[in-house]
Amino acid sequence: MTDNTPANTSINVPVAKINGDEIRRLRECKGLTQLYMATVIGVTTDTISRWENRRYPTIKLENAEKLAHTLEVDLEAILEQEENDTPSPLAPPEDPSDGQVPQAPPEPATPANTLKRHWRHFALLLFTIFVVLGSFFWWQTKPAPMKITVISTRILPKHVPPGQTFPVLITVNTNQPPPVTLILKENLPSGCRIISADPPLTTEAEKSGAVKWISRMDKQTSTFAYLVRAPNTETAGAQLQFSGELTVNQGVQGQKEISGATSLELAPFHWADVDRNNKIDDEEILAVYDRYSSMKEIDFGRDLIDDMWAGSGYVWERKSGKYVVQ
Amino acid sequence: MKTRHDHKGHPTPIMTAFLFSLLFAALPMQVWSSPLVTARYKEMKGREIIIAISITDPPPSTIIVLQNVTPQVAVIQSQPATKSVNSSKGEIKWLLSDVTPGEFTLHLTLERPISLTEMSGEIRYREPNGRMVSKPISKQ
Predict the structure, then answer these.
(1) Topology classification of domain A1-104
(2) Given CA atoms A301, A307, A313, A314 in this order, what sign does their dihedral have?
(3) Chain A residues with CB within 8 Å of chain B CB
(4) B106 or B4, higher pLDDT
(5) Among A171, A170, A191, A185, which Cα is nearest to A239's?
(6) Would you say A268 and A243 are in contact if contact means Cβ atoms under 8 Å apart?
(7) CB B73 within 8 A of CB B114
(8) How large a percentage of chain A has pLDDT more than 90?
(9) pLDDT (tens digit, 9 = 90+) per residue, B78-99?
(10) Which residues from chain A sit within 8 angstroms of residue B95, using beta carbons?
(11) By mean pLDDT, which of A48-52, A145-149, A283-287 is the weakest?
């Protein structure tokens, strides 16, 4: 037996599940129009059409009763004969024009439902955190555009006796793939005279003491070396000041001024005798070889330094302007 | 999130290997590229002394070899040539430049035999960071 009694929703709005086909058949049998039906029941013709077309199979019980009355049949005659005897207690009227639309009742707050809802929130939160952190790390680790830099550094001895020669090194480092064309300009202290250079100088202005290299680096590190004779002056303790600058292609970053040592003192000690004890010890000679052995084209006085190291010491004779190895 | 740990919370071998890889990758390259020079007496018979010097790549630019013998004992022959001989102190020095990786031998012939107890030697070179290293010549 089919139970076609009206159902009540959990929010106490009585509803009924209607049979649209039967309503249409009864209306047409009685020669009634949708307009007439709508006017009598107090709804629109669209609503009548939707009821007949089963677009809103569940309507308010009050309207279902009006509908049955208009068609002059019992309410049961227009209700849906359900296969399942139990009408859905949760089925609300779905027609918005069928008066006030009751909301779907909330799910019962069982522990399982609560856990399910919390898990969804937790998963959403985790996903958001993952996306935010992922974006942050991607932004942090994405390769930054490489800055091309060129750095030049001057290496000078601490001191040199007046009128004696000493080596100067300028190292140029770049992260730009070779070749790199550059102009290196060095201003020698007043009274200094350049003896030799490797690579050879491009220009030399004797009056101003400015020397220049226009060079192409075929490696990422290059060394410009030169040998200078200090001025033969009586002024002990005088400081010889060096300055210089590097010019490279546009778009290359780096300091223009040559960094590193800028001065050395006129003093009666060999330039390799760093601790000024009139001896070249093991540490000093190893430092000389490490630093200057690459200067193949410049005679920086290696044999003399070897003799000083092999001997017991040396003295600088101001009168003769020579070192005497002991 | 699932982590690569066993049920006791210890890192798995794969994770351990990964962490060690990171550790070694983080070590400065200088650690790996420091030259290693060792020296030993290869032969000490009578007046002949042969010193073997083992040099790794990259080599230092220069090595100082210092050999102490009995004072007043003259050097008859040396290959390569000595840089200085102080007979009164019994001190012989070599300055080896342009050295290459591998084993380098130094031959010394003295005027007369000396006892092992009277003999000692040392090598000195600079590491890339500028620090001078001194090592005794091994008698093993």
Answers:
(1) 434 Repressor (Amino-terminal Domain) (1.10.260)
(2) negative
(3) 282-283, 285-287, 289-290, 293, 306, 309-311
(4) B106
(5) A191
(6) no
(7) yes
(8) 37
(9) 999 999 999 899 999 999 998 9
(10) 285, 306, 309-310
(11) A145-149
What tens digit of pLDDT does each residue of A277-300 get?
999 999 999 999 999 888 888 889
Contacts of B62 in chain A (CB under 8 A): 285-286, 289-290, 293
Q: Is the dihedral of CA A234, A235, A239, A245 positive or negative?
A: negative
Averaged pLDDT, A85-103: 47
Distances B122 to A162, B41, B118, B130 between C-alpha atoms, Å? 37, 11, 14, 19
Contact between B64 and A285 using a beta-carbon 8 Å cutoff:
yes
Minimal CA separation from B83 to chain A, in Å: 6
Sequence spans of domains, chain B? 1-32, 34-136
Locate A30 and state its tokens. Answer: 């009685």
Q: What is the phi/psi pair of residue A167, to 5°?
A: -90, 150
Asked if A293 and B97 come within 8 Å (Cβ–Cβ), the reply is yes
Give the Å distances, CA to CA, from B18 to B1, B12, B13, B39, B78: 19, 10, 8, 37, 53
Strands (E), chain A: 7-8, 14-17, 58-60, 150-155, 159-160, 165-174, 180-187, 193-198, 203-205, 210-217, 221-229, 239-241, 243-248, 259-260, 263-266, 314-317, 322-325
* Residue type, position B68, single letter: N
CA distance A263 to B97: 30
Share in percent of chain A as helix, strand, coil (round to 5): 30, 25, 45
Confidence of residue B52 (pLDDT cuts 50, 70, 90): very high
Q: Kindly report the length of chain A.
A: 326
From B84's Cα to the closest Cα of chain A, the distance in A is 5
- In this predicted structure, the answer to whether residue B31 has a pLDDT above a threshold of 80 is no
- Number of A:B CB contacts under 8 A? 39
Q: Which CATH class is domain A150-325?
A: mainly beta
Q: Tell me which architecture the domain covering B34-136 has in CATH.
A: Sandwich (2.60)
Q: Could you tell me the CA-to-CA distances from A168 to A189, A200, A284, B121 in Å, in that order?
A: 12, 14, 17, 35
